[in-house]
Amino acid sequence: MNTPVMTTGTDDCEALRDQLWAAVTDRDEHAAAGVVLAALDAGTDAETVLLDVIAPVQAKVGTEWAANRLTVAQEHAASAIAERVIAALARHPSTRRVPRPGRITVACVDKEWHVLPARLLAEVLTLRGWGVDFLGAQVPTPHLIAHLHTSGAETVALSSSLCTRLPTAHAAITACQAVGVPVLAGGAAFGPDGRYARLLGANAWAPDARTAVRLLADGIPAPDLAIGRTQVDDLPHLADQEYTYVARSQGQLVREVLTQLEQRFPAMNAYTSQQREHTAEDIAHIVDHLAVGLYTDDDDLLPTFLDWTAGILTARSVPARSILPVLDVLAAELQDFPRSVRLLDHARLALDATLASAGHNSGAPA
Amino acid sequence: MTALPHPLITVAVEAGPRTVRLRIGGDLDYDTSGELAAKAEACLGAHGPDDLHLDCADLRVCDSMGVSTLLLIHRSCAARGVRLHLDAPPPFLERILAVTGIRHLFETTAADEQPEQAHADEGSGPAAPAMYGLPPRTPSG
Amino acid sequence: MAPPKESSTTIIHEQPASGAWVAAPYPVVVADGSGTVVEVNAAAAFLMDGVVPGAGMTDVAPSWLAEAHADAVVGGAVPRSPGEAGVLPSVRGHIGDHSFEAHPSWGRDGQVVWWLVDDTGQRLAEAALSTERERATFLAEASNVLMASLNTERCMLATARLAARYLADAAVVVAPASGRTMPVAHAVAGQEATRALVADDPSLVPGLSEALQGFPPVPSRWIDPVTLPGWMLPEGFTGPIGSVAVTPLPGHGVPAGALILLRSNGRAEFSESEELFARQFAARAGAALSAARLYAEQSDITRTLMRDLLPPDLHRVNGVEFAGGYQPAGAREPVGGDFYDVHPGGTESEPSLVVLGDVCGKGLDAAVLTGKIRNTVQALTPMADDHQKMLRLLNGALLNSHHTRFATLVLASVLRTESQVRLRLTSAGHPAPLVVRNDGRVEEAATHGTLVGALPHVEARSVEVHLQPGETCLLYTDGVTEARGGPLGNELFGEERLARALSGCAGLPGAAVVERIQMLASQWLRDGRHDDMALVAITAPRTTHLSAVNGHTRGRYTA
């Protein structure tokens, strides 16, 4: 290129996003890397490429999957390609930066495999000159703590996308704080307004990588160790043991719901074992979200998940009404648990409203 | 070792003329395999049998240390000229023996109705078309 | 002043009572409404010079008592009869070095009788108790803070910060030298602690080298602040130093460092009790520091030992895509009994050798055996084309008369020919590799053989498999298929589910196949325990490009 472009406008980013999207959906890793490296050669800032090109394309992969316009396979291929592209970007000569003092540990909570948001933050911090220890996806809390003891990181940036991982995230947050290291929470699991980050006592929350970088640069104060806080101190409602019960008897609850659905809907008897298993998995997800609703004592968590699920089912021509009997059976099974009943009632009302407004048809369970 | 209220493994010894039978019940794994090895060794030393039968009808779990222990008992039997029998191996054990290629080391005398059955099961034909189950995620946006 | 006559009448009238307090062990002073001393007992006369009948309270009594008397006669309600209980407030004050409580009561004719009770001992005890309480609270807090971190730097900073806040105006923690430099943490009360490395002779600071060697502390009065070297003064500490205390930080058997407390000129020197308290704090800080140091040493050793045991990062080699994934069983153990390696062929026409396996047992024993197998296979790579021979030699190397610990493994020789990838696969007692075709069919490679390391003879049957572009061969350990969980809680993941999952991965890059299978197994497990899980995907690339974007070489793609 003869005239290096020093700044990249919105239009340029949009063009790059379209090119990258085409390469990613075509599963062409080579073309995808070409798009990114050419943009860097042309003078586009690496941080802009990461946050305004790669990140939105990955977000689009998720929404397109939800709308049934991408297969699971394409989705996995896209994230594998994104990984390679980011690795290529990090090695581009234009991304060398002057180191600054300060060390940050970036990790996903245990059983969290959505690694890309954390990876993007780690890359941006590296670009800004921070020392970054990127521990990757699915970091067991003991590994994270052992790492903090040896590395002496000043802050942990903890990522979680699945809200079913919130109890695990809570354990990780309190464990980091117990060794004197503050936690910046990020990722969809913590809610669009960061409410679950606050609830679980995170020292800071960022809705996106740019905010995270700014907060880290401002400095996040270390937790006060002298107090000796524990997990239950944040969530006194856990004392009623409802969360513990529902989480522990998850398999049993799923089996019970499945049995009762089969009695109500004879068509289910014709299900193949795989269809049965998928139905069981869908029920298990609802129970998981109920459990996390109990953990956070949040009325909106289960309805938000069901609303999203309804959209997924509708996109795949499965009637969303099939969720309703699951809620009914669960409410009957858990009738002795006041908070569970409250959350399920709330979820049912919300789902009824959604279905009424969308004019969904009634039908058999998925 | 501390006695547990419910033992993880039970090994009952029935010593007859020229034949010793060990009935194994429960889990043969990292934590318990030492117990079986010790009992088997003691029986071989004390009774000097021609045949050692390991009755596996009530065996529920066998991990790699369990397999290692079966091999150790086999080695000990071979050194003494004792025939080692595995009686009534459950299908999961049959499968482990088949995959690890050590099935031939053990004589089978009873309840061995479907020798290679487990192996035949793992079809390599076209897999059923993938259904979708909803992967758990958090709604984005 | 009251008329003397009336006064003398009173004295006669009150004689029995007066006699009682004349002999009382407590000092008693009686003064009238005009502030004139009327009577004094011997104890009071001994205590206060000049307090004699006829003298003015304001002239002879301590001011606090004189003021209290004036308040009493002006504001106090004079009782109608002598027996009525007074409602006058008690007051407190000092006479000389002693502290007194003065209890007033009404006498006759508006006179006030002051009983003085010496409470000096009680006051001192109260002050001591409150100091003790503060110290206990501080030590509890300090323990919370100090025991939280096993990071030595963090521990040193916390020690300096706590000491500066509570024990002195500024504090310095000096750790024993590593090499030529001593790690040092500085703190000024109310500010963040900072760290530094100092190359200086500790013996230049009086008491420091003794403290670093664990000798008893040098009393602070022996240390002249003028002799302190400049590095000792924290940044932000203004004004000359008045007093210095050097306390050793006792570790587990060896000194963990020294704590130096600094006070500015205006403040009192360290008292004996303060130095004793500093030692109590130092004992806790020293224990925390040496625990942190021990942990750091242990984890250094572990890291060194584990470095070679961790599975390698895989990437594209000679036109073939390799991807690996490993999840150890224990959350606390980074290594276990599963392993894999890719030994690249020397040239593009020589096959690369992949080995994936599982040794029996767990923990360090298994990790050590794993290391032995990986090293042996590495040494045997020159004969990589003859799997049977490799397995015989490996078996011989592992055989041991003491135990029957064994390994199961799969060998794969991988060669790119044109756009295809040719594989030779041999299982030694290991679950056979699976191949996913582009149309979603999943095939099990027809290879089987004997486990290695426990039997004198081993046999194995190899099989040749060809991959078209986009197809993948997956090597896995049984931790994947033995994963127990699922929506109903207690089912095995099993071969069938694995094959089905793999069928859904048709055409994916190898890394995505590994990620998807790991994700499904992890979802299946929920929060349950699992065995080690290892996966290697061998994939024929979909495009014919020899990609430079493999995350390993710093390459540029030219179109």
From TrEMBL, chain B:
Coiled-coil annotated spans: none
SUPFAM superfamilies recorded: SpoIIaa-like
Domain of life the protein comes from: Bacteria
CDD domains: STAS_anti-anti-sigma_factors
Region span, Disordered: 109-141
Gene3D superfamilies reported for this sequence: STAS domain (3.30.750.24)
Pfam families xref list: STAS_2
Stretches assigned to the STAS domain: 9-102
PANTHER family: ANTI-SIGMA FACTOR ANTAGONIST TM_1081-RELATED, ANTI-SIGMA FACTOR ANTAGONIST TM_1081-RELATED-RELATED
Protein name: STAS domain-containing protein
From TrEMBL, chain C:
InterPro entries named in the record: Bact_Sigma-Reg, GAF, GAF-like_dom_sf, PPM-type-like_dom_sf, PPM-type_phosphatase-like_dom
Enzyme Commission number: 3.1.3.16
Swiss-Prot/TrEMBL keywords: Hydrolase
Superkingdom, taxonomy of origin: Bacteria
Domain PPM-type phosphatase: 317-540
Domain GAF, residue spans: 134-299
Gene Ontology MF terms: protein serine/threonine phosphatase activity
Protein name stated in the entry: PP2C family protein-serine/threonine phosphatase
Organism: Streptomyces mutomycini
Organism placement in taxonomy: Bacteria, Bacillati, Actinomycetota, Actinomycetes, Kitasatosporales
